[in-house]
Write a structure and sequence with these properties.
The strands form three sheets. Strands 1-2 form a two-stranded antiparallel ribbon. The protein has 21 helices and six strands. The chain folds into two domains: 247 residues, no CATH class; 138 residues, no CATH class. With 475 residues, the chain is mainly alpha-helical.
Length: 475
């Protein structure tokens, strides 16, 4: 009996050690295994207030001409009650539900049913079936990259309707903007809840799941690393790119159409916002295969943070500049407009070239030239959950020698340009640069904490060579 108990205790210890080893190894990746009080407080805050923040911004434009202070002043002084504001808010309509359902269904169809053909005739474009990065469990998923194709088909149909068929007005998105917000929330919460249930009971790959036991953390940050339905419907790839980012340019076009309808012209500021943000969206889909190696796909689990965020936060708050310009049309001086355009294009150039250098370095395993020279790098190693040892190189040349996240620096320059196009009358359009600064700084810290755990002493060597995160000589 005693021998049997000792054997059982030894097996339990072995099992516990295996779990600890698994957590230690997998802790180098993605979200946490355990929840500290600060993380939990932050998550509860976001779950409670993020939907209200989105509503507040959209309501401020619809009822207060985009003033962020007037609604609060009305409430504090007693001029208005919450019920007054809410009663003036458009509710969910059958028309909005039909529009949104058709939109999402169409994007799902384009995502799973039409294999990419753009890579067959567009030089330099990488589409079709591509492999993602190795997951914590050592799995390499395959993806059908067809986002550019979906964007092109969608916009061809949009312009065909606007110019020839006239089935609906180009202002349809603006005209149903708040009812569509409720539809987006329903989808965001539905897909996040489904993803959590799926992670608990029928995950795609159980070894790539993380469960803390804290409901709010698991709901927010996700359980499954790569939830999928069928062979090709990958939740992360679909919701990160479609339906939100495909819609981004359509939303801006609808805002421009509304400006034309209301004022008889489209201002140069609206054109700037459409052009600069359109470049960003097109770049995203042209480089969708590269996107498979980014933090969203390689490290984030799929939960409310991505599910609701991609359905609601992204399309509603990333398009605030265009919405603002419907209510406050701004005609910029030519010199100022050119300056904003140059800032946006320079930011895009830095963003794209920084990522291009990294991609070229990875694809050639360092056998390339960056700025006319053979790139310098630090050799690193890490372990997956199954105990396999992998090697990678961290580049210290080109833009990556200036700062560890210099691509984010270019992204922030572009973000600032979007805001500057709106002038200086209101703060609302500047939410985007404030938010992006917080988001990308937080991403720097998250990524570096993960890399420190993943690479250990090799990471310390890297940060000694490249000491700055975003701004050379400053931060």
């Amino acid at each position: 009996m005693a021998a049997h108990q000792e054997k059982k205790l030894a097996e339990d210890r072995k099992h516990q050690n295996m779990q600890n080893d698994n957590k230690t190894s997998q802790g180098q990746w993605g979200r946490a295994w355990e929840v500290d009080w600060f993380s939990l407080a932050s998550i509860l805050f976001l779950l409670m207030f993020a939907p209200l923040i989105v509503y507040y911004f959209i309501m401020s434009c619809a009822q207060y001409q985009c003033s962020l202070t007037d609604p609060l002043l009305d409430l504090v002084t007693g001029n208005k009650h919450l019920s007054d504001i809410w009663n003036r808010t458009p509710m969910l309509t059958y028309r909005a539900a039909a529009i949104y359902s058709l939109w999402v269904t169409f994007q799902v169809f384009l995502f799973v049913s039409i294999p990419d053909f753009c890579h067959k005739f567009l030089p330099g474009y990488v589409g079709g079936v591509q492999e993602g990065a190795v997951t914590p469990a050592g799995v390499v998923n395959k993806y059908e990259i067809n986002g550019l194709q979906a964007w092109i088909i969608t916009h061809v149909l949009w312009f065909a309707n606007a110019s020839c068929f006239h089935f609906f007005s180009p202002t349809i998105i603006f005209d149903n903007w708040i009812p569509l917000l409720w539809c987006a929330n329903i989808l965001g919460y539905s897909v996040s809840t489904f993803a959590m249930i799926k992670g608990y009971f029928f995950p795609t790959n159980a070894k790539d799941c993380k469960i803390t036991g804290n409901f709010f953390y698991d709901y927010m940050m996700g359980i499954e690393f790569n939830p999928r339905v069928g062979k090709w419907f990958d939740f992360k790839l679909f919701f990160n790119g479609r339906p939100g980012i495909v819609a981004w340019t359509l939303i801006n076009l609808s805002f421009a159409a509304k400006q034309q309808e209301l004022y008889g012209e489209v201002t140069n500021s609206m054109i700037l916002v459409n052009v600069l943000q359109g470049i960003y969206v097109l770049d995203f889909f042209w480089n969708e295969a590269w996107y498979l190696k980014t933090i969203d796909i390689c490290h984030d689990h799929f939960g409310w943070y991505l599910g609701w965020g991609d359905c609601v936060w992204l399309p509603y708050l990333y398009t605030l500049q265009g919405l603002y310009l419907v209510y406050h049309p701004v005609q910029l001086r030519t010199a100022y407009a050119i300056g904003v355009l140059m800032l946006g294009l320079l930011g895009y150039y830095i963003f794209r070239m920084t990522n291009h250098q990294k991609d070229l370095f990875r694809r050639t395993n360092g056998n390339c030239r960056i700025w006319g020279k053979k790139p310098e790098y630090i050799e690193c190693s890490y372990m997956s959950v199954d105990g396999t040892k992998y090697y990678s190189k961290l580049m210290t040349s080109g833009f990556w020698g200036w700062a560890r996240h210099f691509n984010y620096t270019g992204d922030l320059m572009g973000s600032l340009a979007y805001c500057l196009a709106c002038g200086f009358e209101h703060m609302l359009p500047y939410f985007y640069i404030i938010y992006m600064t917080i988001l990308l700084t937080h991403r720097c810290i998250r990524d570096e904490h993960r890399c420190s755990s993943k690479y250990g002493k090799d990471w310390k060597c890297y940060t000694a060579v490249v000491p700055y995160r975003l701004l050379p000589g400053i931060f």
